[in-house]
Please model this.
Amino acid sequence: MSAAYYAVFHHMIAVATEHLLPSTGATTERLLLSRNFQHGAMLRVCERVGGTSTLPKATGWAVSNLRNNPDLVDATGTFADLQQARHQADYDHLASFTKPGVLALIDLAKDAIRKLTNLQGSPDLALFVTLLTLETQTGRAS
Model:
């Protein structure tokens, strides 16, 4: 469970940092920048884009636009679902997981990674990265 979640988490950060620092010589800088992204902040943005939370006042227009991108909605929904499953697996000692259930979540993680990769260079990705950055830096992209 944790590996599936962290695969999406780290890929989302990689896509974001590659967008923010696109030069090929910026590998070290991208790695340093990646340390700023936070699980909770990313979850808040993903829940907004995925439609499971209310639109924030200041950036609601942006979130509303992103909700029209089904691949981004799917990927952000998967991120939120995987984070919840990881928390259950890591902290809920009464939680039970079946092999088929875990394999299905791994497939969802692979699909989310593919969808995020396909968004590279798109205006929707630029807007999504902006929201992630705002939320990570201020804790209130609203």
